[in-house]
């Protein structure tokens, strides 16, 4: 069942779990993620970065929509970190949720562009994620971020949500995009998360938690994170396994190349779903009422 993120995360917010947003850059990753989520009865967000959208094209989105509409689980199709032009394209193509990332701009400019996106998207039933504060970045990551993390201020979060009308808010509490290099030891500011959660009513989003301890992520979910972005972890598992398969020069058929990679990725998908307390949460969605 295809939903927007406001509908999907309202349930997660009420029942205190987090829905994973898995970045799906290929059909193999899409089907592998969906198969595992359906097996675990876990709501899911299919996240597509603008560069992935460019690479796959609008027809790939039709495949995602078809898969979501035929699925027994709640599914949102979300445009990840983006700006105005790709957002307009994504809405026309059929995305049910978009993220405007103006977090590097001054506060008032961030508010203005996020509000503008909400005014475009909301009448069309498309939800909007904004971001306040900055996520760190690592070498080789394509999702953006800054060398220095600027933590989200609770009082700014309140103003931002009120003035923009955004449906979800990505906050900065100490994470970075990508696979963390050796020696980098991230630590989440859990008390800051709790303070923001106590003041802001919309679901909160965590970006860039690949290198954080499972115990930290689980604690963040308990404290009110309702969406967690996962990209590097599943892609690393997928392509590391594919490199092993490609050592055999006789294998050339896609149905021979990819099964081991999909399985390796699905092991990570299952781990994240259970870590986020997302498994078996279809029970809380009255899907017939949402039709």
UniProtKB/TrEMBL annotation:
A Pfam cross-reference name: F_bP_aldolase
Q: What is this protein called?
A: Ketose-bisphosphate aldolase
NCBIfam families referenced in this protein's UniProt entry, alphabetically = cbbA, PRK08185.1
Q: Which CDD domains match?
A: TBP_aldolase_IIB
Annotated coiled-coil segments of the chain: none
- Name the cofactor(s) required for activity, per the record: Zn(2+)
Organism lineage reads as: Bacteria, Bacillati, Bacillota, Clostridia, Lachnospirales
**What InterPro entries does this protein's entry cite?**
Aldolase_TIM (IPR013785), Class_II_FBP_aldolase (IPR050246), FBA_II (IPR000771)
Q: Where are the transmembrane segments?
A: none
Q: Which organism is it from?
A: Bariatricus massiliensis
